[in-house]
Amino acid sequence: MPETFDDKSQLRLMVDLEPVVAKELDRHLSMAKEWFPHQYVPWSQGRDFDGPLDGEPWSPEQSALSTEARESLIVNLLTEDNLPGYHHAIATVFGRDGAWGTWVNRWTAEENRHGIVIRDYLTVTRAVDPVALERARMKHMELGYEATHGTSFLHGVAYVSFQELATRVAHRNTGTASGDPVCERLLARVAADENLHMIFYRNLLDAALEIDVDATVRAVTDVVKAFQMPGHGIDGFLRKSVIIANAGIYDLRLHHDDVLSPCLRKWRIFERTDLGPEGEKAREELAEFMTGLDTAAARFEERREERRARQAARRG
Hints:
- InterPro entries: Fatty_acid_desaturase-2, Ferritin-like_SF, RNR-like.
- The protein is an all-alpha fold.
- It has helices at residues 7-31, 67-81, 83-94, 98-124, 130-143, 153-178, 181-211, 213-226, 237-246, 252-266, 277-315.
- Helix 7 runs antiparallel to helix 8.
């Protein structure tokens, strides 16, 4: 991944942006609502499992969720489980001092609620096999987390801007697909947190564009072209992501239209007139990639509709 500035320039940029971080942190704290995971879980549905308490073993018929919703919830939860790795990654990039450190710790505390509430819901409602889920968690976390989008500060801010929005979309659509009002309300609450996190990072990158536009556009382009969801290391992720995409929970069209494009519009990437040669080169690469992604999304939608039509014909 190409780096466009050295450590000194990165440090200067972080110093210049610290007042923005402080301002955005204050805004975030004024908008973030206190909530409690235990209030979103239908505890009355719970009963003992087999094991030391000699309860009822889990079996597939106990789950009321569709395969698509169940796979999406598992991916969402296992992604949230890797929080220690994400905390280490952003703390390494942003540091632990001043407003930067305060934000890192606040973000981590808020994110921790997401894994708590989703796991409690899945366990209490017996929506998934808890033994398989725990084994998947162990396997996924043992892999750790390593960023694939470049290690510079700007790459990090660009990535989390897109990733938080992608996570918001995935949570909301999973809730809708679940067919369970309790699950939908729970994931809407989680998605509201993700939205505020996205706004923080998106506004921070917007400010970075005013300080070093060429380096920032290069970072945005690199991240968009190499973007992977943080849970891509989950065992069976490709199979699960295909199921999720075919269900319309998260697919190429949503990634293009509801994640990448809104951020690029907010930053006025394709309208800016202040780019130098390097920024222009990066923007041309970005435009070419977005065009190709739009084409790929259209092809996927067309194939999906054909599959659905064939399935409907067989059922008819």
